[in-house]
Give the backbone structure.
Amino acid sequence: MLTYKISRRDFIKTSLGAGTAFAISFTLPGCNLQPADPGTRIANDVFKPNAWIRIAMDNSITVVVPESEMGQGVLTSLPMLVAEELDADWQLVGYEQAPLDPAFGIQSTGGSTSIRHAWKNARQASAAARKMLVTAAAQQWKVSESECRTQNSTVIHIQSGKQLKYGELVHAAAALPLPESVTLKQPGEFRIIGKPVARLDAAIKVKGEALFGLDVVLPGMLIATIAHCPVFGGKLARYDDAITKNLPGVKHVLVIDSGAVVIATHYWAAKQGLDALDIEWALGDNGKINNHSISAQLENSLNGPAEIIDERGDSSAMKNSGRRHIEASYEVPFQAHATMEPMNCTADVRENKCEIWAPTQSPSEAQKTAAELLPGLAMENILVHTTFLGGGFGRRLNQDFVAEAVQISRAVKTPVKLIWPRSEDMQHDHYRPVTRHRLIAAIDPARASVAWHHRIAGSVKQRSAGGAEAVAYAFDYRLIDFVDTPTHVPTGAWRSVGHSQNAFVIESFIDELAYAMQQDPYRFRLGLLKDKPRHKAVLQLAAEKAGWGNPLPDGRFRGIALHASFDSYVAQVADVSINKDQSVRVHRVVCAIDCGIVINPDTVAAQMESGIVFGLTATLKGKIDINAGAVAQSNFHDFPLLTIGEMPDVETYIVPSTGSPGGVGEPGVPPIAPAVANAVFAATGKRVRTLPINWTV
Amino acid sequence: MKLNLTVNGESVAVDVEADTPLLWVLRDNLHLNGTKYSCGAGICGACMVHIDGELSVSRQIPVSSLAGKAITTIEGVVKNPHPVIDAFIAEQVTQCGYCQPGMIMSIISLLRKNPEPSDADIDQALARNLCRCGAYQRVRRAVHAAVMVLEGNALLTGDC
């Protein structure tokens, strides 16, 4: 039962039997329109994988998507871009998940770039294809191209009303030279872009038919599971597999660089075998590290020396004794990605070939990872198939699970699916780093001017300090600096990366300043936004839609926050109350976003809801603690996620914009923690300076 | 041990260790992969199935206890059109989609017992179905939409 490419199966369903197709390719990112080799533009049943757009004789159009689908909707939004410029009949448009292919350049999905990378090139390639179809029809009718128009996958001769479907033109179009230039539609001409379009991958996911990494089945495949040293940096000292190797179904016990592996005919046998394995770990000095020692290390770091990230204005403003000085420290903990689908990868390593099936955000990195382990293999003999991802959020930019699967399959000379148990997934993530922040403001009340110093201590600059420089307020002096403070805990990109913790810190401290100046937090922010029309517009829209300033029911309080990231501007107003047990209930979140030209407004709304829930889990529920060098949490009982009963009503409002598209996967996350924390201050008078919120301490 | 199971109306023979959880028999022996592994501890709801019509956490049930019982998975549900499936698609609930088969099994179970659930009823019934993508708001909408269809069907067939 080999069912490893659901998207290919879909594709075959829609276009096999058509016999021939017209294919055109383009590459991302970059700006060049790269045509398929004219000799390969048409082929019987065999479609070159570097083709991005395929038009078959049955009129079906397949868009080959090189980005990974992890929930963000790229398998729908990229086809929308193509269909728009092609003037395609949307009902005939499908997708195929691209294999890893050099024709696509680097295939990596992160940083909310799915649309931003494709915006220009996908449309250019589609417009070129449309132009070739028009030329083909005009030649057949012996009329001028200017007498023709396109609509619903059809070329129409305006005067005579003659029509040719795209499917009827594939041979003629494929034989034509590529147009030298194309004209893209103006936003006013869009018919698909900007409309709420239903996701193309909804039905297979709802029905349980979508192929996630965990669902890959290969003939003769074994299943592996792994235990890593609980303390990062520790090693396996010795193990006894006397019990394990006699368990039914267990085939191999193996030690690889990162841990101890049990390989069996079925997962349950492998897991029983792993549990029965008697392992002694050499924990090393890292076994002494805990939350408290890391905190102390970060606090010490804040005393410098620091690397300047951004400094503008006259530094004397900060020292001016006539100003009011306000200082505060914040600390934001490690966070896990906790994707619903645990880390897994299937690998089949042969002498001359390595094939990988993985729910990865970066098939390019997966290939590189395998190549480093298999120096005898040429790159083209390392094939990577990207499955659906049961959540990504940045976790699957790291390819540790791919490296392990390759090592295991190489060792046992069999196709192997490696599945991490949930506890391994929770305890061997690449975490959002813990960061400590010191903020100092010097305010001149008379001139309403603020000098700002934000110092961050944490591990890895981009992950710890990224987003701190995005503070949009017009300070007369700003200094943002960073003290690199590595810990033994591996870090990674966590949805919105540094923006998540820095927006919390910036927007909470701005709130502190507003209260210190006895000003309304919304109006205080507005007053500090100079030449920032897009920030201002989302802030005003969120405030207006939330009814900022209007009375709330008894016991309900509002907080507001604003942050721009990944080329999008987001403001949120949270409406909270305090439960009898002192926990925080979020009732309503009003979210305003300017993400430039919107491709699919329903996807924007879904991603805002998603970012808000992801951020709320970190605001209200979970964190990762380090205890004796290891992660203390192991599953959803001690790393709880927001549940449906805790879901606020989320309203998303989009500011109309003609700017280039911004990201939407991440920008919804950063403002929610400060919006809620600021509402908690309004409710309790207690300033929240660490997460998750526990305002009573 | 050799066992005969009834899965989605069909009789299937498996030869597995008696303590194997139903989840892993479904996935590794029967290749019914719509039932998902996520927490391995009965916390997250990704592996929900119905056993004799009752909502069950397939990870927590040893397969040896299932002889003679009717097991229904998402693959069984989708053999025929189902209003909850249609409502999930219509309301665009899906993001990564990993939790959805488990959610749907929970919702079908809820609607059998409570054909007109309030938001609070939905929240309670789905308290053990975690979604990291945060589709919860749309899940509630989809349940209400499915209820409308089911009530319409009931009126048409007189099956009230």
Q: What stands out?
A: Helices of chain B lie at 22-29, 74-77, 83-90, 100-113, 119-125, 136-157.
